[in-house]
Amino acid sequence: MSTLLNETSTFVEPAASPLLLLGQGRDLASERGVECTGALPAASDPDLVERARAARAALGDRAFVLGHHYQRDEVIDFADVTGDSFKLAQRAAARPEAEFVIFCGVHFMAESADILTTDAQQVVLPDMAAGCSMADMAEIGQVEEAWAVLEDAGIAGDTVPVTYMNSTAAIKAFTGRHGGTVCTSSNAQVALRWAFDKVGGVDGTGKVLFMPDQHLGRNTAVLQLGMSLDDCVVFDPRKPGGGLTAQELRDARMILWRGHCSVHGRFSQRNVDDVRAKVPGVNVLVHPECKHEVVTAADMVGSTEYIIKALEAAEPGSSWAIGTELNLVRRVARAHPDKQVHYLDSTVCFCSTMNRIDLPHLVWAMESLVEGRVVNRIVVDADDAHWARVALDQMLALPGI
Ligand code: SF4
Question: Single GO cellular component annotation (predicted)?
Fold first, then answer.
């Protein structure tokens, strides 16, 4: 152990660091998991790409590697398919012959893949610390307490829970048990309309409890369902009663969970104003996880798949400022050298948890599988898997999906 030199020049042992080396060790209080076994290759290993190629070739059709749009290029290079979280889980389910599904994404995505794949398939997340800060903002105990608050206010029977794909399997299961549905950023409008129709329609008095992304819920309700901002309240799980009175809950139509994406939540209206001032004629295209002020100031709003298609359809020479995760924007810019693609805010960083999956972790996971060791397997318990599947199937049964 190294030592520190203090002001009086005596040597003192340092206090144990609360920090863990990246990818090594575990802190169950703050992370989900299981440590790498110490055999994690060094990022500086000059043979890393070759090791990845060799392990991938050795696994062959036994493995199916999924790469979320927000993953690093070094990981995407080894993905058999790229896409958003739901598309990837569906693609894994369509490959039942693949014994191992290596999910290069974050924890809730691997859970969804486990729910949708067969029992014979094993889903592996190369780094268990790849969580999602938004999904972690709605913990199942908090949601059950919130539902009890709605029951006390006399409105639970008139409320349909809807959860965004970016939530834990336990929250999806809660939604299934209570007659709700899952949604993605592409079908949130249809999902919300379906939910309101269950309790008297959009113009009635029924309510939706929307988790965990307040921004997607608010943007969809106001911009696509024609509700007003006054119809929305924010339920803060850290405050007694969600920080709301029973009357405020009764008067609301959209009860928004206090959660957000730490990447998309950083864009501001000022970013939009600045890019418009600097780039005349720029098209501002943002993800619906952005704040309401950003979405209303933008020209276009849509999911990651929508953003990719919008750039494919754009006129050569056109200018774009995109508000979503940086890995995706950089790849879109590279794919369209005939268009000017700007990042909406040059200070916004990558999704730090998505970036936990790097080539060393992917190599470690694949080499372990080649050696017959299944590491970092994601398994959703059977009851939660059943009810989460009910909620996911409900989403698939929505009109037009
Ligand atoms: S970009 Fe946001 S929603 Fe997506 S994984 Fe990262 S924190 Fe979660």
Answer: cytosol
